[in-house]
Every structure is written in C-alpha cells, then in structure tokens.
From TrEMBL:
It comes from Microbacterium immunditiarum. InterPro entries: IrrE_HExxH. Residues 70-146 form the IrrE N-terminal-like domain. This is IrrE N-terminal-like domain-containing protein. The lineage of its organism: Bacteria, Bacillati, Actinomycetota, Actinomycetes, Micrococcales.
Length: 350
C-alpha cells in the first residue's frame, strides 16, 4: 500500500488515477463495498449498506457538482444525493463520484495527505480524485487487454458496449490510459459528424471544438454506415479549427456505437506515410501577448494549441490560453516569487 509520501508524490504528479487505484485496493481490504457490483449497478450495490445511502433530490441544484452531493454523517449513515439527469449513465457516474468522497474519508493515510493541503487546493483535489474513482470503477483499465491500444475507434465502440458509462467518459479514459507520447485525438460525434467531445493525447493533432460539424469526419461516417459500422482512411478536407485553419495530412478511423447514432473517432497524423501534419491556410499571425507581439508565419513548424486552437507564438510560446501560473512550494503550496524560484533558500513557509 502506498505511504503518505508516495501519495503526496502522486498528487504532485497529478496522477489522480493512481490515487483512485490505491483507494480501490484499500476498499477491497475493508470489504464494505463490492466493487464489481458497483460497476454493474451502483445504486443497487449500495442498497442495504449500513455506511451510506442514496437518495434522489429534486430540489434546486447545489453541492460539489451540478449532478449531486455527499453528506458525511459521523457515526451514522452518510448520504449521497443525486439530482436525476436524463441519462442513467450520468446518474451512475454521479453516485460513484459521491461515493468517491466517502471512500476518501475512510483511509487515514489519504485523508492526512488531503487535509495537509490548503483548504481550497484540498477540496479541488478531492473532486478530481472522486472523478478518477468513478471512472476507475466504471471503466477499469483491464477492459482493454494490456497489449492493445485504447486509441482505436473500434476498441472504444466495443468498450462502450461493455461498460455502463457515457461515451465521453469512455473517450476520456482512452486519453488517460494511453501511454504518454502516443499521439492521437479522440473525438465523439453524432451521426452527422458534429463533435460532442474531443481530447488530444499529445500535441500533434489538435482537439476540435464541440458543437461543430467536421465535414471530413461526416464523410467517413457515411462510409462506416456502408461498411458495417467502421471505416478508416485519409481525412478529407482535414480537421477544421475555429480559427479558419484546417489541419491536413491526417488519418481518421471511425466506429459507430451500438446505437449507430454516435461515432467514436480517432484522428492521428498520416506520418506513417512519411508526412507531418500541415495547416492548409498558410497565413501570418500576430502574437496576442502584449509583451511580445511577434508576427509569424503559420506553417508546420508552428504548434496549434489543442485547447484554444490558436497558433503558439514561436517567440514566447503563448497562445490564447491563460499563461501558466508560477511554480508553487512543495510544502505550503504558495506561489513562489521569481526571486524565490531562482534561490529556493529565500522562501519561508508561513
Ligand atoms: Zn464532488
Ligand atoms: Zn509571442
Ligand atoms: Zn491555448
Ligand atoms: Zn512553502
């Protein structure tokens, strides 16, 4: 079992998934919840449990997420409240997220780590770990054999039929579990090719905005309809960004889900054919950083930010995202001043 120091290291590395795996292992030893049964039917699995009860709450939404909240009752039965959503998948995730709050209170080592942090950071951390716990229970890494990749549209469509989680949760898991350095973007679209979820692994292929129809993906979805549910090939017309550029030289794999109403899509660069992705509207851009203002040509040497879809300035590295905040002290989590960054001895924890 991980020590408190090891848990703190996981927090520093933002490896919430590994924290969740540790908590699930501890839960197995405690033997209060049946993780397998939770995977199948969270609400049913918690029925008759002495530690916790699930209630549906029809009142206006408050609590830690818009979907539900957790109320700890010391020396009594704690409560999970769920604001029912339109999908049972959403409700299952909510129940397990709230159970994730409960589980985090049951393990002294983790509780010590979480409460050693300033309250706002600790609260944020608890939310992240609650999400990771829910995802880990609903979609265990073992759903896909260890020697196969999650970054495959057909694999994701198969996973979706076997787990009780939303398409977005399945796509998100693919990004979390894929080894670092594997470059691909995972997208969920409806049958028209309208993006409902997109997340990039690596920065080779950007993640297109939600709510926009991608014509190239729409075309490949039509092929999938004709070919029994999946299709693969070059991405015609590229992947279109809000900024008006389209990333080219991409390969797309599409697999319809079991309803044929939605598709899992994996886009990667076609570099296996010896090409690097390019952008088809070679244009000048001006850096938005008022301290920089460099005018540069957008070509294959420039990275497009996967989050804001704006080319990153080659001079200062800025896109349209908020710049990263300063590094923080390992012990007190306060931001370090530039002087303290240069000479850590200058920093004194409060
Ligand atoms: Zn929460
Ligand atoms: Zn710049
Ligand atoms: Zn950005
Ligand atoms: Zn400090």
């Amino acid at each position: 079992m991980a020590s408190e120091d090891e848990l703190l290291d996981l927090v520093r590395m933002r490896n919430y998934r590994q924290v969740a795996i540790e908590l699930i292992a501890l839960e197995a030893g405690r033997d209060v919840f049946d993780i397998e049964a939770l995977r199948e039917d969270p609400e049913g699995a918690l029925g008759g449990n002495d530690e916790i009860t699930v209630e549906y709450d029809m009142s206006p939404r408050d609590g830690c997420s818009v979907f539900g909240y957790y109320r700890h009752v010391p020396a009594g039965q704690s409560m999970i409240f769920v604001h029912p959503s339109l999908t049972s998948e959403r409700d299952r995730f909510t129940i397990l997220h709230e159970l994730g709050h409960h589980v985090q209170r049951q393990h002294l080592g983790w509780a010590n780590v979480r409460h050693s942090l300033p309250s706002e950071i600790g609260a944020q951390l608890e939310e992240r770990v609650a999400d990771a716990f829910a995802a880990e229970v609903l979609i265990p890494a073992s759903t896909v054999p260890a020697d196969a990749t999650w970054l495959s549209a057909r694999t994701l469509a198969e996973v979706y039929t076997t787990v009780r989680a939303s398409r977005a949760a399945v796509a998100m898991r693919a990004i979390e579990i894929a080894p670092e350095g594997e470059q691909a973007t995972v997208i969920v679209t409806d049958h028209r090719g309208m993006v409902t979820f997109a997340r990039a692994s690596g920065d080779e292929v950007f993640a297109p905005a939600r709510g926009r129809i991608q014509p190239g993906i729409a075309k490949m979805i039509e092929s999938a309809f004709e070919r029994g549910g999946s299709a693969i090939g070059p991405l015609d017309r590229g992947l279109e960004a809000r900024s008006g550029w389209a990333q080219q030289d991409l390969q797309v794999e599409v697999a319809l889900d079991d309803t044929w109403g939605y598709a899992f899509v994996v886009v990667r660069s076609a570099q296996r054919f010896g090409r690097k992705p390019t952008w088809d509207r070679i244009d000048d851009a001006e850096c938005g950083n008022e301290a920089c203002g460099t005018v540069f040509t957008v070509n294959e040497a420039v990275t497009i930010c996967p989050a804001c879809e704006v080319p990153k300035c080659p001079e200062c590295g800025r896109c349209a995202c908020e710049p990263k905040t300063s590094p923080v002290c390992d012990r007190c989590w306060l931001e370090l001043t530039p002087a303290e960054q240069a000479d850590p001895a200058l920093h004194e924890c409060p």
